Amino acid sequence: MDKQKRLFLLDAYALIFRGYYAFIKNPRINSKGLDTSAILGFTNSLLDVIKRERPDHLAVCFDKGGSTDRIEMFPDYKANRDETPEGIKVAVPYIYKILEAMHIPIMVKEGYEADDIIGTLAKKAEREGFQTFMVTPDKDFAQLVSDNIFMYRPMFGGGYETWGIEEVKAKFEVQDPLQVIDFLGMKGDAVDNIPGLPGVGDKTAKKFINLYGSMEGLIENTHELKGKMKEKVEANAELGLLSKKLATILLDVPVAFDAKNFELDKPDHDKVNAIFQELEFRRLIENFRKTFAADTPKNQEEKPTKQAVPIKNNNSAGTGQFSLFDAPQDNESIEPSFKRASLKSVSHFYQFVESDLAFDLFFEQLQKQKSVCFDTETTHLDALQAELVGIAFSWEAHKGFYVPFPEDQLKAQLLIDKLRPFFENDTSEKIGQNLKYDLKVLRKYNLSVEGPLFDTMIAHYLINPDMRHNMNILAETYLNYSPQSIEELIGKKGKNQKTMREVPVKEVAEYAVEDADITFQLAQHFKKEMSDANTLNLFNSIEIPLIKVLADMELEGIRLNVDFLNGLSSDLDKDISALEESIYNKAGEVFNIASPKQLGVILFEKLKLVDKPKKTKTGQYSTAEDVLSYLAKDHEIIRAILEYRGLAKLKSTYVDALPEQVLSKTGHIHTEYLQTVAATGRLSSINPNLQNIPIRTERGRQVRKAFIPKDEHHILLAADYSQIELRVIAALSKEETMIQAFKNGEDIHASTASKVFNVPLEEVTREQRSNAKTVNFGIIYGVSAFGLSNQTDLSRTEAKTLIDTYYATYPKLRAYMADQVDFARDNGYVKTISERRRYLKDINSRNAVVRGAAERNAVNAPIQGSAADIIKIAMIRIHDKLKNGNYKSKMLLQVHDELVFDVYMPELERIKRLIKEEMESAHTLNVPLDVEIDMGANWLEAH
Length: 943
What we know:
Elements lengths: L5 E6 H11 L14 H17 L3 E6 L5 H6 L12 H16 L4 E3 L5 H14 L3 E5 L13 E6 L5 E4 L1 H8 L6 H9 L14 H11 L2 H6 L6 H9 L1 H11 L21 H11 L2 H10 L17 E3 L37 E5 L2 H13 L2 E8 L9 E9 L2 E6 L4 H15 L5 E4 L2 H9 L9 E3 H8 L7 H8 L7 H5 L14 H28 L3 H21 L1 E3 L1 H26 L8 H11 L18 H8 L3 H20 L6 E2 L4 E2 L2 E3 L9 E3 L11 H7 L2 E2 L5 E8 L2 H10 L2 H8 L4 H9 L9 H15 L4 H7 L4 H14 L1 H17 L1 E3 L5 E3 L8 H37 L5 E6 L2 E7 L3 H13 L10 E6 L2 H4 L1
Parallel strand pairs: 1-2, 1-4, 2-3, 4-5, 7-8, 8-11, 9-12, 12-13
Antiparallel strand pairs: 5-6, 9-10, 10-11, 14-16, 14-19, 15-16, 17-18, 20-24, 20-25, 21-22, 23-24
C-alpha cells in the first residue's frame, strides 16, 4: 500500500512575526546595519520543518492586500493593528528571494489572507488523498482540522505539537473543530478587531457552545439567559453573527492545487548561499547544507595544503623538510563557491618552533617586522588563573609561527625572557583580538607589551557597535572565512574535554596560528574602515591606551571584607523572613512569592487589585517590575513584594556571591571591564558587575561597606563627576542660562526650579527642586508627560505644563535636540565630542514607535557618549601620572561617573590634587567640570 502523501503549508507572516519577536531583545544586525532578525527566524523555522518532517510537498502562503470580503463586511476589521515593524517590511523581499532560490512555491492572492489560502489548499489536498499540516502558531486554524488536516504548532522553547481532532476538542472544549468558529465569534479577537459578543470571554463562550452548540443556537435560546447577559446577547445578536463570519476561514479562494507544483524540489545551492552570504548568515549556511545533505553533490577532492610544520635543527641533506621562510603562494579556495574558505581549503604555511636554532631563525625575522599579530594560548579563560601554553605570531596573510611553552614555569619564564626584546620594543605595532587578556597573561610573567597596539575587537566595535565582535564572526563576515572552532580542538564541554596542553602541538599550532593570521588580516581591513569613518583618532588616543589602564585595574582588584558580608547575609535572612510573613498575612495564605504564576493569581484573582490585569504572551498575569511599580503607591502588599524581591536579589547577586569571587592568591575581587558592549561608549563591568550594586536603598548601600583598602596604610578615595551629563548637554546645546548657572556654582536643580516655577532661588521648595531634577535628567532620555507623571506626584496635565515651561526656559536646548535628530536623519548616526559614532538604523523608519526610540537615542547618545569619553580620558591621564610618578596609590574601579582609588596615606594630598586636576581638565567645555572627592575606611564612607 502506498504511503499517504503529506503537504505542509506554512503561514508566512505568522512565522515571520514570531521570528522577529524572538530576537527583539537581541536583534540580529549585520555589518551593513540591516536588521535580519525576521529573515533568520523565518528561515530557521522553514529549515526546521523540512529537517524534522521531510515532507513530500510544501508551500509558503502569504497575505496580500488584506481580506477584501471581511473589510467590506466590517470596515474596522484589523483596524487596531500596529504598523508592521520596519524589520519585517525589509525582511519579506529577502524571504521571497530565499524561497525562490530553494524552489519552494509561494502562494499569494490579492485580497485574501494566508489563512484563507491555506484553508482552500488544505481542503483541496484532502480531496486528493493528502494529509495536510498547517504550520502556524495561530489557534484560529483549529477550525480546519479534520481526519487528514492537522495543525503543526511551533512551541515556546522549541519543538512542535500536532493538533488533530481530539486535541482541538480538548483545547477548546468543543464537540467538533467547526465549533471553534463559534467560539471565536462569541469571544471576539482583539488582535484582528473582531468584536464578538460583549461580556463573553473564553469560559462563557465554551459554556454557551456546550449548551447551545453554535452562535445560532445561542441566539435562538436567549430566553434561557438571565439578567445583563440576556440583554447583551439579544442586543448584539447581529454583531455576534457578523463576528462568526469574520472568524470563518474561507475555503473558496481562487487558487489551484496541482500536486506536482507543490513537490519539495532540490534547491539552487549557489543562489541560496549567495543570499545567505549577503545577509551574513554564517550558521544558517551550515544548517541549510545539512538540511539538504541528500541533495548535495559529493565533496570534491580537496587540494592538499601545508600543515603546521616543525622547524628542526637538522642540517643533513635530503631530509625534505620545508624551508623556514619559503611558503607556498597559492591560496585559492578549492571548495564550491557557496562554501566559506577554511584551513582545509586555503593553502597556508603555519610552522611551530621546536629547537633553539629554529627559535633563533624565527626571532631574527620577528625583530625585523614593523607590525605583528600575536595570540596567547593558555590553560584558562580567566587571565589571572591562566598559564601560557604557547604564543602564535603572524605578519603576513596565510603564514605564521607557533612557539610552544613548557609546563615548567621556570623554563617558561626563560622563554619569555628570550621574547622580551620583541614585546618591549616600543616601535613595532602589536596586533591582537581582545588584547587586554593577552596583556594580563603576559604581565603575570613580568612582561610588559610596549609600542603601538591594535585590537581588532575594539576596532570593529567602533565600526559597528551594534554587531557582535568575536573573531569567528568577524572572519566570516569580512573575510568569508570559517576558522576552526575550539570545540574541534579540545572537544565539547564535559568529562572528555581536553585541556590545551593535552592536544598534540601540531594541532595546537594549526589552531593558534590561524587565529593570529586571521586577526592580522582583519586589522588591515579595519584600519581603512576606521579611517573612512574618521574614528582612528578616537581609537588611538582613547580606546587603545585604555586597554592598559583597565588591565592594570583588573590585575590589582579590590580587597573585600568577607566577614562583614557574612553578617549582612544573616541580617538579610531575617528581613526577608519578616517580609514573607507580612506578605502571607496580607494575602491570607502561604504561597511561593518567587513564582510569577502563583503571585499573579493571588494579586489579580484573589485580591483583585485591578480590574483588567496585564497578561503575558502565555496568558499568565504579568508581575513584572514595571507593572508592580505602577501599583505600589496604592497597595501595601505590592510595596512589600518589591522590597522582598530587592532584598532577595541583593543577597543572591552580591552579598552571598561576592565572597565566592575573591581570588585566593590575592584576597581581592577582580572585576573585568568590557569596552565593546555599550553602544554609547560606556564601560561595562562583569565577574562581578560592580556597576549595578544598588545605591538608593539602605541595604544596597551596605554592600559598598564591604569594599576596603588593601591594608592599614591605605585609604579608599572616590572621585565623582558632579552632574556631568547635564553639564555636557548644557555645553553642546550652548544654552546660556544653564551654562551660567553652572559657572556660578549654583545647585542646577534648584536653579531650574526657580526659573520654571518663577520663584526666587531661595524660595524653591523641596518638591519643586525634586520635580525639576526629574525633568533635568528626564529630558536627556526623552521623558514624556506620561512618564514624568509616573515618576512624580504631578498629573499628566501638570507634567505637560512643566515640560513645556522647561523648554520655554531653555529654548536652545530644544533646538539642539531637534538638530541632533535632523543630523541623524541625514547621516544615519550621531557623534560625541570625540567623534564616537552611534549608528541609528531606524531613524527614518515609518513605524512611529521604532522611529521615536531612534530619535531619543539621537539626543541621548552624544550626551552619554561624551560623558564616557571624558571619564576615559581622565582615567588614561591619571594612570599615566601614577605610573610615571612611581606612586604606590592605585586606581581600582570605574563605576558610572565615579573613580575609586586605593591611596597610600603618605601620598594622600598629592593624589587628591592630581585626580581633581586631571578629571576636571580631561576635556575643555564652555561649562566647568566639577569633581567631588571623598575618602573613607570603605567604599560607602568614600562615596
